[in-house]
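$ run holo --ligand "farnesyl diphosphate" --emit tokens
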Amino acid sequence: MSEVEVQQSAKPAFEVPRHVAIIMDGNGRWAAARGLPRAEGHRRGVEALRRTIRAAGEIGVQVITIFSFSAENWSRPATEIRELMGLLRRFIRNDLAELHRSNVRVRIIGEREGLDADIGRLLTEAEELTRANSGLTLVVAFNYGARQEIARAARHIAKQVERGALKAADVTVATVGAFLDAPDLPDPDLVIRTSGEQRLSNFLLWQSAYSELVFLPIYWPDFDRAALEAAIREYQQRERRFGGLVAKTGS
Ligand code: FPP
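-- output --
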């Protein structure tokens, strides 16, 4: 299994989305279709993730957000939760050094509380080691739910109002945005979901207000550079108007 290598080169001439967010769906169905355990689908999902990070860097995408473990995934059987936690541990232990060498900056969004202490430490280590990197930003949405993220922001804002630091009348769209998990990052231009399902499933609901959505009929373990390029080509056909009348090329 090759390690992640990211090159910021060979950029195509067309307009590349600055931020691509991905719902990596279909690991279980990929495995079931082959008579394999679901865990094998997740393992192959990590290989697809490595390919995708490399391809995104080569194409010139600046930020990639991946839905790695949702706040709702806790309802899965304990064995599968253990497997997914183990995959995250192995991904950080095996790939962090290479990501760092490739100038990738790792960010984490989602709720840290309630995670095993060692997972919390690994997530913090990944962020701290790569904090000064200036290449691709890899945002790992882990124990993440968009409604939970917006509720967290609302609680922070309510506390500021309680303390008298903010007036209720001054709470704007920008105020809410500033209290989200990664407020400095641009909104996703393109959200991709694999497996043929056509919904957002509580992923980046606030940030994807004007994102282009592309649904691909392939399972996540089969995702590769060609699939990413196909999604980007579809994105390039779309006319982005952000509620106005004139097409714009992004925020
Ligand atoms: C959806 O497939 C995928 C997940 C719930 C987890 C995605 C995780 C990975 C690709 C690997 C782990 C990532 C890291 C960073 C270690 P599914 O199980 O819902 O598939 P199904 O809908 O076909 O059952």
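-- notes --
DSSP finds seven helices and six strands in the chain.
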